[in-house]
Each structure stands twice: as C-alpha cells, then as structure tokens.
Amino acid sequence: MTMKENILIVEDEFIVGNDLRLMLTKAGYSICGIAASVDEAKAIIEKSKPSWVLLDIFLQDGSLGTDLAGYLRQRGIGFIYISANTNQHILEIARATRPYGFLVKPFREKDLLIMLDIARYKHQNNLQMAVQREQLMRKQLQHIIDAPFELADRIARIPGALNTFVPFDYFNITIAGKRPNTLDEYSFLRSGYEEYQPLEQTDLSKSLGLERSLVLPAKIELLEELQSGFQNEDDFTHWIADKVWEKKLSAHLRLHARLAIAVTLPDGSAAVVSFFSRESEAYTEEQLALLVKMENTICQLLAQIQQKPDTAFSRVMAKKRAERISPGNEAPLFEGIIGRSPVFLHILQSINMVSAAPSSVLILGESGTGKELIARCIHKQSPRKNKPLVTVNCAALPSELIESELFGHERGAFTGATDKRAGKFELADGGTIFLDEIGELPIESQVKLLRVLQEKEFERVGGSKVIKVDVRVIAATNRNLDKEVAEGRFRLDLYYRLNVFPVELPPLRERKEDIPLLAQHFVDKLSEKLGRSVTTISPEAMKQLQVYDWPGNIREMEHLMERSLLMTSGSVLKQIILPRSTGEKPVLQTSSIEGNRIKTMEEMEIDHILHVLKACKGKVCGTGGAAEILGLPPSTLNSRIRKLGIKKDFHIRD
C-alpha cells in the first residue's frame, strides 16, 4: 500500500466496528468513521469521501447495507461486505450489487487485509478497463466523424461503434426534425455479431399494428421530456406502462431494459440515443457514465446526421438489403464458436471486451457449454496470443500431485521424482493458464493457488528458489461457486480473486434458436471426418433436435450427431439417435424425499449418478457410457464419483 487509504466502516455492533478500526489503523489505513445506519453512512461519505467502505448487510435500524451499493458505485467508491450471514440467498443478493469482496464474521486480521488487497486489485483492473473503454469509444466515434464516409455509411457504422461498449438488441436515434412536428429516426435491430439490420419507421409501425402518424405526436412530446438514465426489469415495465409505442415495441422484440443519453445539439434541437436489451439487468451506472463522458462527441456525430439529405437512411436500407449475410461470418474472431441468438451474442460481446485486458476471467456454465473453447478464444484475441495457452483439468489431478503439476518439482522431491520438472504455471509464463473445473480443486490446494495469484511467484516442490511468473488466469467451473463458498468448500478470497470478469455461458436449452446452426455445423464437420455424404437435415430430424432439452449441452449434441451420422446413408439426416431416457424406454426416476426428510442436493446427485450407472451396467466411458449420457467428460464424472464415495456402493468399470 503506497498511500494511506481512507476507510468508512458501516457496522452497528460497536465492538465489531472498533475491532475493525484497530486492525485497519495498525495496518496503516485511515478510518474516517464508523456508521451504524445507511443514512449515517451517507452523511460521512459526503463529508469525508472515503476510498473504501466496509459494509455490514443487516443493520439494527432495519436498513440494509445492500441499499447503499448503488450510491457507492455512482461515486466510484469500492465496498466490501462484512456479514455473519453466508446462506446462498444472502450471497446472491450481495453479488447482484457487484461488491469487491465479502468477509464472513468472525474473521482474522489476515483475512481482512487479504480481502482489501484483492479488492484493490479488482478496482485497479476495473479502472484500467474503464479508461481503455473510454479511450477506444472516443476514438471509434471520432473516426466516424472525421473519415470521409458517405452519410449513409456514417449512419450504418454507429451501431457497431456503440454496441462494443453498451450492448443492445434494438438501437434508436431520435432527433427533432427541421420542420415543426417532425422527427428524424434511425433504428437498428442486432441480427448477428457485428450485424445490424436497419428498420424503416413506417414498416416498423405497420408490424406493430400502429399508424406512425397517430403515434408521432406522443413521440415528439416524449423526446422533449426524456432525460439520460436507464431502467432494468421492473423499472422498465413501469416506464413503458403509459407509452403506446414503446410498450408495443418491447412486446414485439421481447425487450426488458433500456438506457438512453439525451443531448441538445448545437442548433438547440433535442436528440436521444436509446439502447434496448432483451436482458432484464442489462444496464449499469458505469455504462451511463461512459455515455455521459462521450456527450460532446455524440453531439458532433448527431449534428452531422442532422444535415443529411432525406434519402440517407433509405440508402442504408438499400445497402443492407443488397448485402448477403453469411451465418458464421464471425469465424475470424470466434473460430469454432457458433451462435446468433441474442443471449449468445451478449456473450461474444463480453469476450471481445475482456480479451484485450489483463484481468482474470471466470467462465461459468453447465458441462458441455463450451467453456474451454471460450477460454481459447479469449487467449487468441489477447495480446498474449503468441505465447502459450496451458490447460489444467483440476478435476483430473490426483490430490497428492496437484502442487507438483501446477508448480513443478525438483529431482528427488518425492518418491518417483527422478527428474526436475517445470509446472504448468512456469510453462505458461508470458501467456495464459486455463484452470478448467476449478470448483473441483481441494481446499488445501486453493490456498497455494491463491498465493501464486497474489504474489505472482512460487517455489517448485522440493526447491527453495523463488520463480516469478507473468500469467493471465482464466478459470472455469460448472459448479455454483456461491453455494460452494457458503458451504465451506471454496475459499471466498480465491473466488473474488478469480471472479474479476465473469462470463456466464447459457445452457443450450436457453438458446434453442442456435440449434439449427449448431446442427448444420456438426453435419458439415462430422460428415467429412466420418466419410459420410450427409449435407442436410430433414425437418423431422430438426424438430427432434429442437424439442430435446440437451442436459449435456453442445458436447452432448456433437456426440449424438456423430452417432446419428454413423447410422445414416445418403445425403439427408432423417433421424437423430437420442438417449433412451428421452422416451424410447422408461426413464429411471429418483425421489427428492426420503421418508419425511427432503434429500440434500449431494444426496440427489449421488442417486442420479447411481441410476445412470445402473442403466449403463457400471460403464463410465465410451459410447453409451454414463459420462456420455450425463454430458460430462469422463475425468469429471470419475472425479465426482470419487468425491461422493460412490465406488464403495457400486461396481464401476471404465
């Protein structure tokens, strides 16, 4: 710590608050006050402007520390929760406010100081990314302003320049017209990665069942009233309740959130740039703040558009209609990643945003959703792309060899160590290490991993030489780490160290619009691999694919498509060979109730794995094995079997 940081403690128990004050003062921090309520905290913040706030969640006057989170974010003040409550519901509420850390009472002085170090690291990363975003956004908008584009091209480039920083599904620019009671509007619907379909207002009105001439007065009136701001979910529903056009549009396009920047152009005309999203919690204070910083640049750009000839947007429409858009044209950036559904396009946008940054990334998602592919993509787009990407499957590492695998060992360090060996972190120096299935790492190994992430140094097993490394960490898990933390199986400090930039991959059942694209991709890929002549999928087979729930996600789809192609002759795939449990034979059922007691999630998991193993006659690997049916890598399933103690109860064969 190079400077004396100012900290506010929000804690209604005097003894706890005073203990925190003594710990922090001893460590060199300055304490600007101890507040017992949210209101008292706000008064101290306005007066003392702290660098950090330690924030209890439940306060005796009935106020909640989580209610202070938005207030702190607006002022750029980092905060860490301190609470005795660690159940999953509380953790989810706290996580939604995006804190920099979470400490569970009681905690040691060391835990507090480590959490503050982690918080500072995350805050610095966030600030660095915010500066980079601001610089890049200004540069892209200025390029549109300065470059000798035709006006139609200038308008067409705006959605792509803005979507990188404020993702949207529907985008609109509204400017007060030169003539009284008129508006100039430019609307785009995102149709793919970096693909934006222009929407002509008259055609859009017809598709909504509205006459543009009838809704125009209300839109003109609204333009004069609009202010910069954003609405998510319930606030958005309330905002559109009395607005005919916006309500119809949102229902038609399934929109659930909105962010807008309202500006006044040099000639006094009012203008609004609006972003709408299908995600219910799409927009943040940071995005709004970024747009506010860009206000002058946005005004310059809109002033150029305001001078357009009436045919400019018509030329954009004509140009876009003439373009033949090919599915998968995102391949150069996202090789092997297939998808054009709105939820998946948001993921691609996140990947594009974080790739250039040095931040740690935590990829969350069910087994088979493509976490390793996403990690490879982030590495390939990063400045480290010419350095190694080293993958570690944490679930496959025997507990006694984890330290040796990660950090290497010296000759003679343990029985069998006949040679000196470099570990995975050493091999990844200058590049990226991908820690797959990080949720399976034993708690004792998590401590050693945390030290490397904090200090960027380690010693080989059996050695004393300190080895320094420069490694970017990408981790992935199919486990709910909030729940793992709450139940003591995953370290809270490690979780916050890894979770600088989370990327949450949706299961295939939540992006079924992508199934036809994925299915055709696997037909093309596997036909060549298997020497088949299949080129198309019949409507009946496609219906099978779309009604199935895909518990094993994309990995399961690839396996089932391969099996189906092996059973197909000719050029048309007519039937998909789905697992027996989908209805061809009776499904084994497991009950969540035993006597009068509801089973735990772990007991349910044991029951489910046992039922599948019995159906497979104990076979884990290969075609028809339990791993394939469950949509898991065999190494992951074997790890879960060992962890849950299933081998004691059932004869298992590989």
Describe this entry's structure for a reader.
The protein has 654 residues and is α/β, with parallel strands linked by helices. The chain folds into 5 domains: 6-128, Response regulator (Rossmann fold, 3-Layer(aba) Sandwich); 149-322, 2-Layer Sandwich (Beta-Lactamase), CATH 3.30.450.40; 342-486, P-loop containing nucleotide triphosphate hydrolases (Rossmann fold, 3-Layer(aba) Sandwich), CATH 3.40.50.300; 508-578, Helicase, Ruva Protein, domain 3 (Orthogonal Bundle), CATH 1.10.8; 593-648, Arc Repressor Mutant, subunit A (Orthogonal Bundle), CATH 1.10.10. 45% of the residues lie in helices and 16% in strands. The strands form 6 sheets. The protein has a 6-stranded antiparallel sheet, sandwiched between helices. The chain has a 5-stranded parallel sheet with strand order 2-1-3-4-5, sandwiched between helices. It is globular. Mean pLDDT is 85; it is low at 324-332 and 581-593.
